[in-house]
Write the structure tokens for this entry.
Amino acid sequence: MEFTTLGRTGLRVSVVGMGCGGASRLGQAYGNSEAESVAVVRRAMELGINYIDTAEAYRTEEIVGKAIAGVARDQIFISTKGNPYKEAAPVSAGELVAGCEASLRRLGTDYVDVYHIHGPKQGQTQHVLEELVPALETLRTQGKIRATAISEHFSTDTEHSVLLDLFQADVWDVAMVGYNILNQTANRTVFPITQARSIGTECMFAVRKAFSRPDHLRAVLAELVEKGEVSAEEIDLENPLGFVLDESDAADLTEAAYRFCRHEPGLDIILMGTGSIDHLETNVRSLLCPPLPGPVTERLQRIFAHAVSASGS
Ligand SMILES: NC(=O)c1ccc[n+]([C@@H]2O[C@H](COP(=O)([O-])OP(=O)(O)OC[C@H]3O[C@@H](n4cnc5c(N)ncnc54)[C@H](OP(=O)(O)O)[C@@H]3O)[C@@H](O)[C@H]2O)c1
């Protein structure tokens, strides 16, 4: 495993993070037993992953708690999240604190390393800054969280407008950012700020459906061409992004997608979500490979330079 420093938190984290949400939720979304999901997290730790991301909304905190039971607490970094709104009603500071305490009970720990406000949407930023940020400071003072963090709702906000709005206050230690081959907007707008302020960054959406299902990639690319965000001359819809495999040693586009993100200088941790031990092992190998060849990376940067609307979901 390779390790890096998560921005101003100073935490020495693995460059690969175990994502316990997304479409798979450790396989809970498609029928894994609890024991199978616990085994995925344990295998991740055996492979050297020391950063595990979950959320109250994922319903995988108890699984993470079981997986880390018996592991020295200072050998593992736990990240979780609380919702800013529930059923369209704003969550109060007291409810956020109580929600975090419930997360700690499910995780079987007395603190988490990173605590996020989970994916606020347009129109929710003032509530987050005025009501919930002070609650995060309360939690930090009480020793229940070590770092404050924000994750974005990337599938509905592909140009990071809410995240950028929340950056008006320099109160975030860590940010979870949507980034992938199809949507590289963060390196123009988000990363200059996170780098200037030493905000640690976690990448989500590196692969999603677009890079795990060829039909879906074809459909997303066709839409980007139709919207004029990508030139039709640059894309062969019969063999989407085939040049990446012809001109690199990547085994498939899933591997290429993870490697593309791993070597983006603005990103510290690449979160990888799966419920399959086979996929986990393959993805860790991919993420530890060298960058894609320079000409391939540059061509991907050029093709998608004006693509702003796809999340890859
Ligand atoms: N707003 C937020 O806060 C937010 C939103 C989304 C995600 N997240 C976090 O970010 C993490 C990563 O997001 P993600 O899980 O969507 O990301 P991802 O790693 O980009 O995509 C995972 C998807 O790809 C599939 N996959 C993974 N490896 C594969 C392989 N080798 N071959 C074929 N399919 C493969 C997985 O299915 P299998 O189970 O079949 O492998 C899963 O459906 C989440 O788990 C969560 O912790 C946060």
In short: The pocket of NAP is lined by residues 19-24, 27, 53, 81, 118-119, 151, 153, 176, 204-208, 212, 254, 271-276, 279, 282-283 (CB under 6 Å). The chain has a mean pLDDT of 97. DSSP finds twelve helices and twelve strands in the chain. The two ends are 28 Å apart (CA to CA).
